[in-house]
Amino acid sequence: MEKTSHEWSPESLFAKAQKYAEVMFEHQDTNWQFGLWSAFVLEMLIRSAVAKTSPVLLADLKEWHNLLFALGKPIKKSKFVAKSASITSLITRVGDLAEDFTTDHANFCVSHVERRNSEVHSGNMPFENFGSASWLPNFFTVCDVLAREVDESLESLFGTEIARQAREEIDALKDENAQAVKGTIAAHKAMWEKKTAEEQDQAHKQANTVALRHYGHRVSCPVCQSTGLLLGKAVGEVKREVDDGGIIEKQVMRPESFQCVACGLKINGYSKLIASGLGDTYTATSHYDAIEYFEVDIDEHIRGMMEDDNNEY
Q1: pLDDT digits over 196-245, tens only?
Q2: How much is the CA Rg of the chain, to the nearest whole Å?
Q3: What pTM did the predictor assign?
Q4: Coil, helix or strand for 126?
Q5: For the chain, what are the domain ranges?
Q6: At 286, phi and psi to the nearest 5?
Q7: Exposed, middle or buried: residue 296 (CB in 10 Å: 0-12, 13-18, 19+)?
Q8: How far apart are alpha carbons 142 and 95 in whole angstroms?
Q9: Taking a C-beta distance cutoff of 8 angstroms, is the pair 127, 197 a contact?
C-alpha cells in the first residue's frame, strides 16, 4: 500500500497551495474572493517552506504532543487534536530559514494575513474594492521566493500562463526607473497649481467631455483629479454571460498607458502606472445581442426557411 504523505509535509502543503491557487484564479482580480484566496495560498506556501526543513518546526510548542504528531509518532493522549503554530509565528520562522526571504517580504505577509483575518473574523471586507496593483506584485514576488524554497516554481504553482503574468508583475515591481514618474507627476502638479480657478474649472469640464468610456477606462488623474483615461491590454480569458438582453463579455485589462487632457499628464508603461497608483486592472465589458454575436444573417435564414418544405404529403 502506498504511504500517505503527512498532512504537515511540505509536499502536502504545497499541493494545497496549488488547489487554492486554482480557486483564486477562477475569479477576476477585481473580485474580493481573488484577494481572499490569495491569502490562503500564501499561508500554505509559508507552512510548506517551514516544513521543508522539518515538519516539527510547524508545531505549536505549548503542547509537546504536537512535536510527536509532526514526527509521525503515535499519540497516547486522549482527545488529542494536533495544533500548529500561528501563521505570524511561522512568518518569523520562515524568515530565519529562507535565505531570500527579506524583512519586506515578511511585512507584506503579515499585512496580507491581517486582511485575511479581518475578512474571516469580522464584518469588514478588506478585499472589497482593494486594487490588486497595490499588493499583487508583492504577492507574486513572495510566492516566487517560497516556491523556490521547496524546490518548486511559479509554473508548478500557477501554471505556465499565470506564471508568465506573475514574472511581468515582479519585473514591474523591480523597475527602479519607474519611480522617476513621481517627479513627472510633481512637475505637472506644480504647473496645474499655477492655473487660475477658472482655467482649472474649464480644464475639468473639457476632460469630462473628452474622456468617454468607450475610448478607455475612466479614472481620476493623480495630478488634477480630472477624469483621465487608462488604456490596457487583455489578460486572462474572456468571461461570457447570457441574459435576456443577449451576450455579455467581460475581459480583465492590465493598464499600459494613461492620459489626462486637463493637465497634460501622460504615463506609458505598466511599471510606471504601478508607481503612480494607477496600476489596478479593470474590466472591459461588451454587450451583444444574440444575432450580432453569432453573426446570424436574418435574410438568409428566412430564405432558407421558405425554401425548406417540411409539410410534404
Answers
A1: 999 999 999 998 888 776 678 899 999 999 999 999 888 777 888 877 66
A2: 26
A3: 0.71
A4: coil
A5: 10-174, 178-293
A6: -120, 140
A7: exposed
A8: 11
A9: no
Altogether, the residues listed in the chain come to a count of 313
Contact assessment for residue 48 and residue 150, using Cβ atoms and an 8 Å cutoff: yes
Q: Hey, what's the cell of 297?
A: 444573417
Helix/strand number for the chain, H first, E second: 13, 6
H or E element at residue 227: strand 227-234
Question: Residue 90 in contact with residue 47, Cβ under 8 Å?
Answer: yes
Computed from CA positions of residues 66, 69, 70, 71, in that sequence, does the dihedral angle turn out positive or negative?
positive
Write down the residue that cell numbers 514618474 correspond to. 181
What are the CA-CA distances from residue 177 to residues 112, 255, 273, 304 (Å)?
27, 18, 12, 62
Cell (9 digits) for 257: 498607458
Local structure of residue 86 (DSSP, 8 states):
P
Q: Are the C-beta atoms of 147 and 163 separated by less than 8 Å?
A: no
Cα(13)–Cα(94) distance, rounded to whole angstroms?
Answer: 14
